[in-house]
Amino acid sequence: DSKAADRTVDSVCPYCGVGCQLTYHITGQHAEDERILFVEGRDGPSNQNRLCVKGRFGFDYPRHPSRLTTPLIRRPGVPKGLDPAFDPARPLTHFAEASWEEALDVAARGLVDLKAAHGPDALAGFGSAKCSNEEAWLFQKLVRTGFGSNHVDHCTRLCHASSVAALMECIGSGAVTASFMQALQADVVLLTGCNPTINHPVAATYFKQAARNGTKLIILDPRGQALDAYAHRSVRFTPGGDVALYNAMLNVIVSEGLYDDAYIAEHTEGFEALKAHVSDMTPEAMSGLCGVDPDTIRDIARLYATADKAMIFWGMGISQHVHGTDNARCLISLALACGQTGRPGTGLHPLRGQNNVQGASDAGLIPMVLPDYQPVGDAQVRAAFEELWNTTLEERPGLTVVEIMDAIHAGQIKGMYIQGENPAMSDPDLHHARGALARLEHLVVQDLFVTETAQFADVILPASSWMEKDGTVTNTNRQVQLGRAAVALPGEARPDWWILQEIARRFGLPWDYAHPREVFAEMKRGMASLDNITWERLERENSVTYPCPAEDAPGADVVFSESFPRTGGKAKFAPTRPLPPDEPVDAAFPTVLITGRQLEHWHTGSMTRRSQVLDALEPEAVASVSPSELLRLGLHPGEALTITTRRGAITLKARVDPLMMEGMVFVPFCYVEAAANLLTNPALDPDGKIPEFKYAACRLGPA
Ligand code: SF4
């Protein structure tokens, strides 16, 4: 009832990269009694008043009884590890409450001492794509100027690092070339390795709207999905057969002369080499690898190539492979060969996952680049940041998420600071990742709850939820948007930027920010992408797209119409060859395990499983299999199913999903009681360093 609300605050959804704008309706006048009553969609550029179930109902987790409201320090002698009897509703026996002064001193001293004893390479940090741009900037600045290394990363490594690697290599920019709203102007939209209805629900409404208006949707994926009902062609390919399929499409485009000669000559380099490279990858030669018949391959290649305006969208079904970078290279080649970038209704769009994974990456939460993707190895780049920060910077790129876990086991990394990420649930091969966390000599975790990762911590610092702070975030469309504090912080919890500043000061850094707007002002001095976007402008307009040519002009929804940001201004074709999965199925492990998200839950579930409505909708761990697979196993829906890989086993309820192929099982990774990542393969893509979450050989059986 809107009349029951005392006030409203305009902000942005804290979940996915769509970045829906919303309004919180709040009751109560004081910190103790105020609460968010309900949430309404607002007329933002990427949602036009729409919200999905998470945005609409997932707002109550900050007031969950298990919310951290005071700093905690591990009691002496308590061994580190995941406590199987852990119950957030019970008093914490492993940790003792502490004052902020004491907790910050212990947190920082442990890290400072390790650096003094073993050097800067002994420390690493994970920032968070759930935090604001300003917090991401401060986190990477702390690691680079305080810890003294580039060992800083975040969850982009687990979602689109391979896409970014390919985009940087081929077009010179890691962000999308056009917003998803441009789908409304396209004649053909190719969606591959993504399931927007589940993962980017409001973006999916634009694809449906486009289809209703006559846009032809081509969906390529091993799994079926709700958008199939709107598709002109929906094609299932063999898991891991993507590079073969895309190369066969390129072969058709080349052999039938469907490419755009003029565009290729003016805007690209390397097409002759690509032509020669794909000449033997005919639909007939690739059909066995990708499981798609040659006529269908020809049909979809012609549909895409002959469209006047066509866009390609992809998701983690493409990126999370040992050949994830190759997948993205292929999709970029398709767009370049057909001249499908730089105009309205054309473009390349990796659908970004977290609400701020684009912004956190832009802000430099990446081990090989400083903010705006400027290489740490470039002396000129370093000199500019050394002047800005009055420091000396390390030139060697740092380690990535999974490499940091390996380096802990190898004895190199001894201390970590983890802000808002949950590697004890999100990393591949959790026995390995949790073993690494337990080995750390000093671990500081900054979060809202005693997450699975926080259970390994020496010090836990109670942080701020999105509803409790001001800050900017950048969505998948390159729209920088302003979030506003809606409710007060509970108990002793503090804003993340304040906590980071206190740790930095204990490293001897003279930080003195009074508000996130001052951090944003500093970011603008190091990030040309933020030119003409000011905090004041965001307060007025709520959302501005980068790049933006002037303070009174809108940002560019479509980029690279004239040239690409590479030396010489031309984009590059990067040929690829099909590679088998790292761990192909065999007689002992004959089924393909894929992992991902559910509509109702977000990543490791730390927020949505503490949200009443969302938890009621999906309260327990399930594994989705095809009806025939269930029949073969002799199981009924809801009965217990055990999934075993070379790394572990989990037992959870079987769910029938007619959209699943036989020979596949899908498990969401948000359930600690049946943690999907106990099973996943940590093998990495050599370029993006992303693990192969979308293919592990497994065995199914009744529990
Ligand atoms: Fe939030 Fe994404 Fe849903 Fe929009 S689509 S309401 S941003 S979770």
UniProtKB/TrEMBL annotation:
EC number(s) given by UniProt: 1.17.1.9
Domain 4Fe-4S Mo/W bis-MGD-type positions: 6-66
GO molecular function: formate dehydrogenase (NAD+) activity
Protein name: Formate dehydrogenase subunit alpha
Recorded family membership: In the C-terminal section; belongs to the prokaryotic molybdopterin-containing oxidoreductase family.
Keywords attached to this entry: 4Fe-4S, Iron, Iron-sulfur, Metal-binding, Oxidoreductase, Repeat
